[in-house]
Amino acid sequence: MRTSLGDKCFNVINTLLLSVIGLAALYPFVYVLSASLSSGDAVVSGKVLLLPVNINLEAYVKVLMQKSIWVAYANTLYYTVVGTLVSLLLTICGAYPLSKKRLKGKGVINFLIALTMWFHAGMIPFYLNLRDMGMLNERFTIIIAFAVTTFYVFLLRTFFQSVPVELEEAAKIDGAGDYRILWTVYLPLSRASLMTVGLFYAVTRWNGYFWAMIVLKDKDKIPLQVLLKKLIVENNLSEQLVDFGSATLVSQETVIYATIIVSIIPMMIVYPLIQKYFAKGALVGSVKG
């Protein structure tokens, strides 16, 4: 089948447009990486545009030598790993019953859950609610208070509804109950969906800083993103890194850029490993309404 002139023009324009968008999205990361590897005076004077200038690793040495960075890193890993597991558990527990026609009041429950996607109380009432329950400045608040996203519940519910009912009936003939059916039938078939939803939860947890900044006051409990905010927005680097050594080798800017690179390394490692599940998992919501 021959490609028409219009298709060829579309492919060329589409390729050029996507290339420009891709380069525009990639350049900030390249710049941050180059700046973190450059000398402090080169970054301050604006000599770094694309490639590193006067390459050195002093900024990374300064970052990795600070206890506050490692504490914040450990907190972020804890909130991400534990929080993602809790989120997946609660999401599965909500999606599986909603996928069953025999659930009494299913329509009303679905409506009430969906209502939270359209309306919510707002930031101030939510904060006051956390305060009145004594959940401020507590690690478990970050885990529990933001555990479930309604959209992901409906996403998994839709996939569970697409599983052939014959598999469940066969398991029931063998004497399996709902918990065993969920564990041995539904979850193995839902691997792509669970990996996709889990990654979305993990990225949200890893990048989350707003509520952690509001809820957590103890410096030993804040995640890495809150620490980054203090360094970049509040220009509070002096409290974290006092000795800059030689001003020509490292500066406040290079240390900030190095901290940013260090903070995104885990997501850069995880994304390629789970990318193969995206094609199937991201389209699960379109299988069955």
Automatic annotation (TrEMBL):
PROSITE patterns: ABC_TM1. Residues 73-274 form the ABC transmembrane type-1 domain. It is a multi-pass membrane protein. It is found in: Cell membrane. The chain crosses the membrane at residues 12-33, 77-96, 108-128, 140-160, 181-203, 255-274. Pfam families: BPD_transp_1 (PF00528). InterPro entries: MetI-like, MetI-like_sf. Its main location: membrane. Keywords: Cell membrane, Membrane, Transmembrane, Transmembrane helix, Transport. Belongs to the binding-protein-dependent transport system permease family. This is ABC transporter permease subunit. It comes from Paenibacillus phytorum.
